[in-house]
Design brief:
This is Macrophage migration inhibitory factor. The protein is an alpha/beta fold. It has helices at residues 17-32, 71-89, 106-109, and strands at 3-8, 40-44, 59-66, 96-103. The protein has a single domain (3-104), classed as Macrophage Migration Inhibitory Factor.
Length: 112
Amino acid sequence: MPCLDISTNVDLDGVDTDSIFSELTRAVSQIVGIPEKFVMILMKGSVALTFGGNKEPAALAEIVSIGAIDSQIKRKLIATIGSILQKTLSIPTTRFVLKVFTVTSTKNASRL
């Protein structure tokens, strides 16, 4: 059950976040190989966040998943999520960071 948590300094007021949630859910589901009904997405906007010493649009995301996410899946997640954020929120892919965490059981996942 992957959970993607995105924080961005972009103001999400007036943004159609429903379509972004749908696109991210579909992408994570396909890349990780888990049905969409098991994918959780959180997105926080207007977060106090700088990257490279400035406040231009940027995002930090973390994905936690039960089961292994190998390096090939990590690369696909970074590229795909970054592209979605660039297209929908005008966040350059060079200003997007994804941290990937894998847990081995639901017992450990509940402690994160």
